[in-house]
Amino acid sequence: MSFQFPESFLWGGAIAANQVEGAHITDGKGLSTSDVQPNGAFGELVERQDGDFNIKDVAIDFYHRYPEDIALFSEMGFTCLRLSIAWSRIFPNGNDAEPNEAGLAYYDKVFDELEKHNITPLVTLSHYEMPLNLAQKYQGWASRDVIGFFTQYAETVFKRYGHRVKRWLTFNEINVTLHEPFTGSGLPRDCDEQTRFQAIHHQLVASAKAVKLCHDLIPDAKIGNMILGAMLYPRTCHPNDMVKTLVQNREWLMFGDIQARGYYPSYMTRKFKEMGVELTITEADKEDLKETIDFISFSYYMTGCASADPQEMEKADANMLQMIANPYLQASEWGWQIDPVGLRYLLNFLYDRYQKPLFIVENGLGAKDVLNDEGVVEDDYRIAYLNDHLYQVGEAIQDGVEVMGYTSWGPIDLVSASTAQMSKRYGFIYVDRNDQGEGSLARKPKKSFYWYKDMIQSRGANLAAPE
């Protein structure tokens, strides 16, 4: 591939407040749903007692170290940083009458620092967390009241930061409620389908109302959605496998369809009927949903297979998505199958479906990085992973897909969302902290730091063709 990425292409990394900031009750912040998940987003809810350990309470202390970290991102050549605002830092209980000024002032300082380094912020309003009080008092997004609390929060931050933040996302991986309802919507893990899909509906309405607020309050801004790109291939070419794949892919595509088109797709009528789900959708809801997003953003880590054969389903991986393994692919240390070509396929698939600009806002390799005798992480495996995926992004752009940018997941080591581990490392920057919370928190560039820097500088011209 003799190719350079467009000059307007945004390069950077992605982080989430609850995985990097720490300072979980500092400066008036309230507890979030993430603060009561000490074993990760896909673990059980644990009621906090005094003295309980949650590695996210400190995380990597980005709350205090953000100038140092942003300077390192700048050294790599970042033109974009995806970050989230902690909702409970702005409205500690979620239903507060007035926002917490100390929380607002904190993000002012972060945006100041990004501006100093000419790094464009891409801000997620809700990334795998919400104020805990809303989950406890209102059963999370099961309550229609939460729509109003979220729009109050969105309006507050749009008015505060709209003059400097021009790229926004509503919910991180909004389809995750299908798999982990507490993480996605503050619901009990054993909630029924009626409750789950009503909560999803409330969240979709809230997202659309936030999109309208953004369009009205910041006319020169762009706002997108964010979905977990969980593309499935048919396990075989048997027609039943083809239909099963179609049906299962629609489970996550529904979220993109509603937010990009402004209404529920017709295929959901049958699905709701088969599940016995009857949603309460008001005429006002239908009007709200018509306010559509400006671009599609997604995470991409792996693909899987779908099969109509019950025996194949029994072989599904024990990860969150319960995907059937693809025999042609290798897997990471955490069992996530590695499929760079799948990223090109997904980009083309989504662009064909929506004809809207696309933004890859999460992609990366979690691995057990080890410092060598010289104190350096020789993460050639990460370089190979990123090279092969970015090569396929270049191919998709040449296919005619409009790709806005790429923010790798975890440009600096952070607390894993799924397992609350530090040992599952994604970053270009090593952070001295282990799973027990021990370490100096010192930052040190890995080998991939310098590779990514060169890749950005050359606009992808130094990407090697996959073997």
UniProtKB/TrEMBL annotation:
Origin superkingdom: Bacteria
Molecular-function GO terms, alphabetical: 6-phospho-beta-glucosidase activity
One matching Pfam family: Glyco_hydro_1
InterPro entries, sorted: GH (IPR017853), GH_1_N_CS (IPR033132), Glyco_hydro_1 (IPR001360), Glyco_hydro_1_AS (IPR018120)
Main EC class the enzyme belongs to: hydrolase
EC number in record: 3.2.1.86
Keyword Lyase in record: no
Keywords, in A-Z order: Glycosidase, Hydrolase
List of catalytic residues: E362
PANTHER family named among the record's database cross-references: 6-PHOSPHO-BETA-GLUCOSIDASE ASCB-RELATED, GLYCOSYL HYDROLASE
Family to which this protein belongs: Belongs to the glycosyl hydrolase 1 family.
Listed name of the protein: 6-phospho-beta-glucosidase
Source species: Vibrio tritonius
Upper lineage: Bacteria, Pseudomonadati, Pseudomonadota, Gammaproteobacteria, Vibrionales
Protein's gene: ascB
